[in-house]
Specification:
It is built from 16 helices and 18 strands. It has helices at about 5-15, 35-45, 60-70, 95-105, 125-135, 170-175, 200-210, 210-225, 240-250, 265-275, 310-315, 335-340, 360-370, 425-445, 450-460, 475-494; strands at about 25, 50-55, 75-80, 90-95, 115-120, 140-145, 160-165, 180-185, 195, 200, 230-235, 255-260, 280-285, 300, 330-335, 375, 385, 415.
Length: about 500
């Protein structure tokens, strides 16, 4: 049986002793909401009370069943392709199957339940969920979500009447339960794209984002910044996702695509290959934004711009879970989401009222603060810094008010949320890079000065080391050189 973390125990106690019959529990992606749910169901089972856990993804149904079995509870499954056991005191149901069988077609009765838990409760405004909730007027309805807001960004009041907030992302990073992010991203021009239902119109967004140049930039920047980590890419639509995967493959990257129409067996096998390390990147369109758990994935590419803070945080949340050897998560943002919504480490004020919207005061201060603290590009080293503060990488601070600089050719820059930051590479690291560049230069038949020029391109200065003995390059160095070669070829073609 999995031992509960302190904040999970606190959540269970708050829910059990809450006077509200409709509490909404807010906890970040990767914080273990399913463990809270299974513990609540076990508590009710021990008191001979029935529970129903409602989810919207097949994978979550099976994960929940397995976690209940670890606690000695045999649960009934209500899902297409599974044999139901309606006599079980605990039921785990896929919302689509439950609604179709018990409400739309009345082929079965709604299971008896004293406790109903709604997973990913920000979907609870949908008609299918409302019908299920209405079927249990006397039960305790508990919502679980990392992003408690509707599609238009407003609160979930009217469905839930109490907000129970658990520790936020920075708290869980401090305790080691999540990892921090390292962000790279260009400014994105999204002017002229219409807004529908609170987000960018998909067809217009796809036309803007799915171009050879922008997709090519994604490939170049992944090779340069990802460290060849297991990666998930979020695209605008199916064609965009396929295009990204194809271009990655052309660049020698092991990448595959999945979408909502991909057969389940094929999708499962693709994700299994990613888990085994047989492929490096999975590109998807709105399939892996929720309910997908693979802690080894250490890089996220945001190629889908969104006005929705909740969707942005759900996507980045896929890579926040810790894993052996994983000290941070790399976010390569080709969507402008960091500039719009701030860092995922920022604290958010989540409203319950349907009239309210989530607030990121740290980002608001960056945009509207008196010192002009927006995220901008350092003119000296290209690192992203907060206006009015020294560059966290090189320490540069202009004598006058900082001036934003356009990012040339969408070149990605490090976006750092801290006021201070140690250089990414030590003098020893730079020496090793020079030695590895020498080896690559020899392999390619380049003149000795090539390695020195690449060193200057990478670090901004010439190597002071003199002659160095070439050594075998790491995958990171080879990837960086390959990205520079691709960028050079594209520039010449242009």
């Amino acid at each position: 049986m999995t031992e509960l973390r302190p904040y999970q125990k606190e959540a269970v106690e708050k829910i059990l002793h809450s006077k509200s019959n409709r509490p909404l529990v807010v906890s970040p992606t990767g914080s273990g909401k399913t463990i809270v749910a299974t513990t609540l169901m076990k508590e009710h089972a021990d008191r001979f009370k029935n529970s129903l856990f409602v989810v919207h993804r097949r994978e979550i149904v099976l994960q929940t069943r397995d976690k209940l079995e670890q606690q000695g509870i045999s649960a009934g499954i209500i899902m297409a392709g599974e044999r139901p056991d309606l006599l079980a005191g605990v039921q785990v149901a896929a919302i689509q199957t439950l609604h179709a069988r018990a409400i739309r077609c009345e082929r079965m009765k709604m299971p008896v339940a004293h406790l109903v838990i709604i997973d990913e409760a920000h979907h609870a405004c949908a008609t299918t969920y409302k019908k299920v909730i209405e079927a249990y007027p006397d039960a305790k309805i508990v919502g679980l979500t990392a992003t408690p807001c509707r599609g238009d960004g407003r609160g979930l009041g009217g469905i839930f009447d109490e907000l129970i907030e658990l520790p936020q992302v920075p708290d869980l990073i401090e305790k080691g339960f999540l990892v921090p992010t390292v962000n790279f991203g260009p400014h994105i021009d999204l002017r002229g794209i219409a807004t529908r239902q609170g987000d960018y119109a998909v067809e217009q967004l796809a036309d803007r984002m799915n171009t050879d140049r922008l997709v090519g930039n994604i490939v170049v920047h992944w090779l340069k910044y990802s460290e060849r980590r297991k990666t998930v890419v979020f695209a605008v639509d199916v064609a965009h996702s396929v295009h990204i995967a194809e271009e990655l493959v052309k660049a020698g990257v092991r990448a595959e695509h999945i979408d909502g129409t991909t057969p389940k067996a094929q999708r499962d096998e693709t994700l299994a290959r990613l888990a085994r390390g047989e492929i490096e990147v999975v590109s998807n369109c709105m399939v892996l934004t929720e309910g997908w758990d693979m802690p080894d994935v250490g890089c996220c590419v945001l190629a889908r711009p969104t006005r929705k803070m909740g969707l942005y945080r759900q996507m980045v949340g896929r890579v926040l879970r810790p894993a052996p050897g994983k000290t941070n998560a790399i976010v390569i943002d080709h969507s402008g989401a960091v500039y719009r919504h701030g860092f995922v480490e920022d604290r958010v004020e989540w409203p319950l009222s349907p009239e309210g919207k989530p607030k990121n005061e740290a980002q608001r201060t960056r945009e509207d603060g008196p010192t002009g603290s927006r995220i901008i590009e350092c003119s000296q080293c290209g690192c992203m810094r907060e206006g009015g503060k020294p560059c966290p990488n090189c320490g540069f601070l202009p004598p006058k008010k900082a001036i934003d600089h356009e990012v040339i050719d969408s070149e990605l820059c490090l976006i750092d949320r801290r006021g201070s930051h140690k250089p990414v590479y030590s003098a020893e690291d730079r020496h090793r890079w020079h030695a590895m560049l020498r080896r690559i230069g020899e392999e390619r038949g380049y003149k000795p000065g090539w390695a020195a020029h690449k060193h200057k391109e990478k670090f901004g200065d010439w190597p002071p080391y003199g002659a160095v003995e070439p050594i075998e390059p790491t995958p990171e160095v080879r990837s960086w050189v390959r990205s520079r070669m691709i960028a050079y070829a594209k520039a010449r073609a242009a």
